[in-house]
Amino acid sequence: DIVMTQSPLSLAVTPGEPASISCRSSQSLLHINEYTFLEWYLQKPGQSPQLLIYLGFNRASGVPDRFSGSGSGTDFTLRISRVEAEDVGVYYCMQALQSPLTFGGGTKVEIK
Amino acid sequence: QVQLQESGPGLVKPSETLSLTCSVSGGSISTYYWNWIRQPLGKGLEWIGYIYYSGSATYNPSLKTRVTISVDTSKNQFSLKLTSVTAADTAVYYCARRRQGGPHDAIDIWGQGTMVTVSS
Fold first, then answer.
1. Spatial contact of A4 and A23, defined as CB atoms under 8 Å apart
2. Is the pLDDT of residue B56 over 90?
3. Are the C-beta atoms of B78 and B68 separated by less than 8 Å?
4. Which of A96, B14, B18, B109 matches a 20 to 30 Å C-alpha distance to A73?
5. Can you give the pLDDT at residue A8?
6. B91, B59 in Cβ contact below 8 A?
7. Which residues of B touch A (CB under 8 A)?
8. If you average pLDDT over residues A76-98, what whole number do you get?
9. Does A67 touch chain B if contact means CB atoms closer than 8 Å?
10. Distance from CA of A39 to the nearest CA of B (A)
11. Looking at the complex, does the CB of residue A87 fall below 8 Å from at least one CB of chain B?
12. With an 8 Å Cβ cutoff, are B107 and A48 in contact?
């Protein structure tokens, strides 16, 4: 299985300030078709996860442009340019290169 | 818009079989991959498996001997069966739709989740 490791475990951010979450995979997520199968999800308190980023850097429909995904190979980053109160929750990265699909352990983002 | 709704017993006895159904509304079950994902309370997400609308399923090896996912296109539903459950199977179970095989691969729609407790 591909192991996904996120850091930090938690993050407290002042509204309007940036935030960054790291995700590392135990093997490259680059497919032979040149797509990178790394996704980011946000689980807001009491809700189901929702898609933020797919194929490494593509924002899902309706996701604010303050969210961006970057990285390649085994190292990825989710950045929030200016955190807002509605961004609180647990962020998960997930690899979809191979079965079983595997998630990182999650990063909890709170507002200071 | 497409919505997913899980249904099934919220309490299952140890050693028995957990059975859940996901009803797809607002769209066809055809073309996509239909997933089951679970989350023990306060913990992270675990992918259980998915099924293509044609009936081809892929399972997490950690659960493969106990899991069956099936699809009923006539009812626009897919189902999960997990046998020989233990307390470790207590979790919120989500059904979810995955786009796959194109330039938009992702789990784009999730159900609200259903809590299943394994206890006598």
1. yes
2. yes
3. no
4. B109
5. 97
6. no
7. 44-47, 49, 58-62, 94, 98, 100, 103-108, 110-113
8. 98
9. no
10. 7
11. no
12. no
